[in-house]
């Protein structure tokens, strides 16, 4: 009561925090519905004139309504993965990355929804847990690169940022501008290949 809740009863304080979290999730889902129903169609009309057949790029909460239970289970599993990773870092004496609620919620919930679609409850829990471990250890490998850029001690927890940051950072370290150019071109080719084969698989499934 003296350290955390500023005098508020512990049970009441826990209920308040739970209510704040539930309200935050509701606001996110309401925002997703607003984007789907109002904002996307408006921008879609403009983009069709500028870039025909373009598709809107949307953030991960856009898939939350498809599996609300997987959202919560994915968040819990991802955060648990972050806690396990933190204890491993403490025991091994490396840099300790504290699990953040925001990245584990957004990324973990997304991994949970996708895992649920492909593997049910097991896919949700295992996929989100591994995602939590991934975004915990990637910043350790990324930190030396950020230190060279003047961001020593900073961490960014998204897996895509971590992977690309490590790739481009070490490309710059060993190859300079040429290394970064090769890394960017290689990444672009990989994305094109994934897009092509993804569309091909969808067409074959139909």
Description:
The chain has 206 residues and is mainly alpha-helical. The protein folds into two domains: 1-58, no CATH class; 63-205, no CATH class. Helices cover 78% and strands 0% of the residues. It has helices spanning 10-50, 68-92, 101-148, 159-205. The N and C termini lie far apart (59 Å).
Record keyword descriptors for this entry.
mainly alpha; 2 domains; globular
List the helices and strands and how they pair.
Blueprint: H1 10-50, H2 68-92, H3 101-148, H4 159-205
Helix pairs in contact: 2-3, 3-4
The helix content, as a percent range, equals over 70%
Average residue pLDDT: 79
Q: Report the portion of residues in β strands.
A: under 5%
Structural class: mainly alpha
Question: What is the tally of beta strands?
Answer: 0
Largest sheet: number of strands, sense, barrel closure: none
Q: H/E order of the elements?
A: HHHH
Oligomer, anyone? single chain
DSSP summary: helix tally: 4
Number of domains: 2
Rg is 20 Å
The parts where pLDDT drops under 50 for at least 5 residues are: none
> What is the rounded distance between the termini?
59 Å
CA-based shape: globular
Structure at a glance:
The protein has 206 residues and is mostly helical. It has 4 helices and no strands. The protein has 2 domains: 58 residues, no CATH class; 143 residues, no CATH class.
